[in-house]
Amino acid sequence: MSDKKKAFWFIALLSTLVIIPFLGETIFYSKGEPREAIVAYSMLESGNWILPLNYGTDIAYKPPFLYWSIAAISAIFGGVSEFSSRLPSAIAFLAMQFVFFGFVARYKDTKTAVITSLLLLTSFEVHRAAVACRLDMLQVSFIVISLCLLFRWDEKGCKGIPWTAVVLMACGTLTKGPVGSIFPCMCIGIYQLIRGRSFGKTFLSLFGIGLLSLIPLGIWFYAAWLQGGQPFMNLMLEENTGRFVGKMSYPSHHNPLWYNFLTIIWGWTPWTLVLLISLFGLKWNEMHLFAHFSRFCAGFGGFMSKNIAIFASGNGTNAENIIRYFQNSELVNVKLVLADRETAFVLERARRLNVPFACLGKAAWADGTAVLSLLEDEGVDFIVLAGFLARVPDCILHAYPNKIINIHPSLLPKFGGKGMYGGHVHEAVVAAGETETGITIHYLNEHFDEGEIIVQYKCPVLPQDTAEDVARKVHALEYEYYPKVIGGLLSEVC
Asked: What is the pLDDT of residue 279?
């Protein structure tokens, strides 16, 4: 099982144990909980799932998705109770937790995904909403998951209609009104505009998606109006407009704007306290307690370390040097060695050093999907090229932005490009009469040896030096500096 999967199951088990067993241990603790539960009770008693009456007299304040969920679950458990009424919120939180873990792990790394999940699980306001019979957790979950799906849709070039996101936004609007569609569309729209997409395309596509997600709410609204008439209309107007302008015909929560910021500060306790300390007190590198905690987490279950894959095509001396350098590291784990040639001696080096290895043929590297699938299955966070001569497929470049590095045996941009590798580079350096050469460690992009330079190290080229002499000097630089640079980069992103 990959480290990513281990981390996922750890978070899944921990979240479930923290939330589920305690749902029915306390009676309803606020007026809001029985107010929501009684609507579901009325649904089951009356058979009216469109607009049941609250306590037999009042129209329900919000759209019915939460009440549908409570009623459906309560029907299975034999009646409405504290447990069955709170279970939809708990399920929504767990769904959000699992989806967001996968999202962060895919686009960032496993360690960040674990930390994010733990922050959510241990924050007061999130935990309170997850174990309460209230609307908030359902809607937040629908918004967060739909945002993740809209991001994937954007990543794929905004092709087609993201139907799953549309359905989830529809559920969000059926939980607590149009904000369930407005918020995710607004967030992804701002993101697209920042990245340079035209306003017209952004507006039209998201407006269409938003309208689609509002159709179920419109259908319910019409059906409810047929039952509730003008009193229902008045209530909906108050809930969706009067609340924001301070004009309510019944007692409701009216608070100044600063109240929302205070809620965030207190709701995210204890982590807001850590934030305040870090911003206005100690520097992170002076907070030794957190440093010790990070080291503990790095070793816990093995899933907090960074997993790297090494791509190589030949002898593999650099690969072996990197493997040996990180053999006892708590933060870096050489997870996999991949080659594109069966004759590559690097595979034998990996076998001797007990590092998993594989050789994938030309077709696999041309397409890249099989390689990417293997990397994801193994939970690889970072890729290191060590004498890899094939072109890295675009799908891998896009899946690992700024997480693939290469070492080139010259001072780029000199003596770079297709066909310039190994002895060819050293011969060209000598032939050109260069007085110095060295190594360049750089990020990988779609073009050979043109990615952003991270660092360069130099060595002299003497008039009497042969290509073999230059090779020895360059190899010495590679062995000394490449593992150190890898470790430094990974410590920064960890």
From this structure: 64
- DSSP conformation class of 386: S
At what angle are helices 82-107 and 136-155 packed, to 10 degrees? 20
Question: Strands, DSSP E only, in 102-222?
Answer: none
The C-alpha atoms of residue 248 and residue 254 are separated, in whole angstroms, by 9
pLDDT band for 243, please (50, 70, 90 cuts).
low
- Please give the pLDDT value at position 123: 87
Which residues of the chain form CATH 3.40.50.170? 306-493
Task: Give the CA distances from residue 165 to residues 5, 92, 161, in Å, rounded to whole numbers and listed in that order.
Answer: 25, 15, 9
Q: In 245-372, at which residue ranges do the beta strands (DSSP E only) sit?
A: 306-312, 332-339, 357-359
Better-predicted residue by pLDDT, 411 or 276 = 411
Residue 53 main-chain phi, psi, to 5 deg = -85, 140
**What is the pLDDT confidence band of residue 295, given thresholds at 50, 70 and 90?**
very low
Residue 288 has pLDDT above 50, yes or no: no
Q: Tell me how far apart the alpha carbons of residues 485 and 470 are, in angstroms, rounded to a whole number.
A: 22
Backbone φ and ψ of 308, nearest 5°: -115, 150
Those residues whose C-beta lies under 8 Å from the C-beta of residue 312, and which sit 6 or more positions away, are 318, 319, 337, 338, 339, 344, 346, 385, 386, 387, 388
Cβ atoms < 10 Å from Cβ of 243: 14
Question: Interior CA angle at 54 toward 48 and 58, to 5°?
Answer: 110
Catalytic residue among 253, 288, 292, 408: 408
Is the pLDDT score of 257 beyond 80? no
Which token pair is 409? 């045996």
Q: Distances from the Cα of 64 to the Cαs of 73, 170, 172, 217, in angstroms?
A: 14, 12, 11, 10
Of 402, 395, 343, the residue nearest 371 (C-alpha)? 395
The region of weakest confidence among 286-300, 351-365, 415-429 is 286-300
Mean pLDDT, all residues of the chain: 86
Strand 436-443 and strand 404-408: the pairing is antiparallel
Q: Could you confirm whether 292 is annotated as catalytic?
A: no
3-state helix, strand and coil shares in percent for the chain, rounded to the nearest 5? 60, 10, 30
Is residue 316's pLDDT more than 80? yes
For 306-493, the fitting CATH number among 2.20.28.10, 1.25.40.10, 1.10.357.10, 3.40.50.170 is 3.40.50.170
- At residue 458, the 3 state secondary structure works out as strand
Where does the pLDDT of residue 363 fall: very low under 50, low under 70, confident under 90, or very high at 90 and above? Answer: confident
